[in-house]
Structures
1.
Amino acid sequence: MRSGELAELAGVTVRTIRHYHQIGILEEPSRSPNGYREYDVGHLVRVLRIKRLADLGFALQDLPLDDDADHDARLESLDEELAAQIDRLTAQRSVVAALRAGGVAPDLPPELGVRMALASAVGVPPRMARLEREQMLLLAHLGGEEASRLIEDLYDRFAEPAAVAAFGTLYEQFDVIDASTPTAELERLVSESIEAVVATVGDLDLTTPLDLGTAESLLDEHGASHLNPTQLRVLDEIGERLSQRLV
């Protein structure tokens, strides 16, 4: 029989048959004088066996070419692997459920996605909300659990009504500053931002910096690609003065 007939009888595709040949789990048949592969019933048995074991969950690259007498050991190993997969899928379903319950997008962990939803609550301009979301994604990934816990704590505080009103206004003002903004206006924005942050997180111990490694430079690079020079200068000034106030 030819490959098409073999594939049809086995319930697979011709491409699958070729893949089996490529990874070495199905022996190549002899060829007819005109160059076509000629399969026999032995090949059909082998393909059916491969298909059955693959459907059970065995990895194709681990399938033996000959009958394996140590069935129990192989099945025990497969059972352990399937149990681990079930655990992973159960955990994934829990995350999906949390995301759906919180009404947040899936690109952040649920606990951070819920906090990120505060950006809408404070009326953050869309461009600034996107910047903050991407920065949070970078920080949570590169800073690990410690950074994630800090983000959660900070956003819980920013959810307080007084903070919501203050930071909503500050975000709007920050979004529109540029080289034409008067120096006095920039100074006022810096001062009010510092006072708002201190009032919100002043009792937190922020004296021990996060060990971000290369993440810090990446966060700076990301910010520089989204903000104008005036905004970057204002952020630097806010950061420098905050480091003195929160010691």
2.
Amino acid sequence: MPQRLRDAIRDVPDFPKPGILFKDITPVLADPVLLQLSIDKMTESASDFAIDKVVGIDARGFLFGPSVALAKNAGFVPVRKQGKLPWKTNSISYALEYGENILEIHQDAVSPGDRVMVIDDLLATGGTASATVKLLKELGAEVSCVIFLVELDFLDGRKNIDCDNIHSILNY
């Protein structure tokens, strides 16, 4: 079945800009069997870890995070782009390929000592995941693992993430 999952991910050349080969996961999301398989595989990747909170990264981490959180009997926490959360937040600026962005988390979203799992759809350069891990550690959380559906190995983004347990379901 993982081959069926791999086959469903569509390559979109020159998106969002020339020279980028975008890995489009929307065919996976549209197929209930593949969507469930993705959730199951992500949950299995964290089977060795007791988790208090699953942290989904804006925006595609929100697609998998709540389901994985329920499967792990954990809460779900969104990490969002600046200005999207209504309560008191901590924020972090991080570098993008061309420019920078800011992520935020509610100050009370995790407590010191909470064991958290970070989840997102794709690991490229690791900037967003790295910033998320830093935010969580600033709040005192223990980042148990970071899980992705897809990893672009040639970009070596995992080296930028301060976590010993990084797992990807599909590697390209």
3.
Amino acid sequence: MTEITPLDDVHAAMQAAPTDDAARLRFYERLGDSELFLLLKHEAEGDDISPELFDLDAGRFLLAFDREERLSQFAGGAAAYAAMSGRILARMLAGQQLGLALNLEVAPSSILIPADAIEWLDHTLGHAPSQIEARIEALHPPTGLPESLLTALDTKLANARGLASCAYLVGVTYRGGGRGHLLAFLGALEGAESALAKAASEALTFSGVAAGALDVGFFAPADPITATLAAQGLRFDLPQPAREEPAPPIAPGSDPDRPPILR
């Protein structure tokens, strides 16, 4: 039986409801988070890659697949590729006037994504949350949040393996009268704060919540506030690495700050 991938699922939901903005957002969120395999003309040379380019009536497109097997099926056998996340691929294509042919002819999620949609995805994923300072007056259970946001948070945090021990979603009242919701991370790794805050921001964006806001905070497990967070909040457990493994060699597309160079 042919494997149905997460991208197949969200693509099917988007196709079934073409006017549903939330379904379309979920597709682009999954595209950004997925590992993709970009078809190359030949093996990468350091940071330089030479993707296959296809000229179609709708523009110029690169080909990428969400499984190696699908790439091989399209190519008719083994072929050179570069593996990278959808967000890195979008960053690489930004400003190039290139679209993305995803899973072309080999999967239910076969789709042509035009250059302007790639530009939008890169801009959306590149948005960084702002930093503010506020003093907490009281915490209370979260209320009024849509299921789409809770699902998006659960999915995002499941991909943040080992970056923190857990997170609590709570309602919060700040000194001065401000109210909102806070996603409080416990035991975040040093240097992981920006990645976790960005994951929370993307969950809010791609859940389709209009004009929503979600604050993010970081606390040590021994902080006095932890007991209140546990009593009042909705808990999200982040997956933890089973064991420490040696770092793999850096491959083209693995560093979001150094996307591969098109040749």
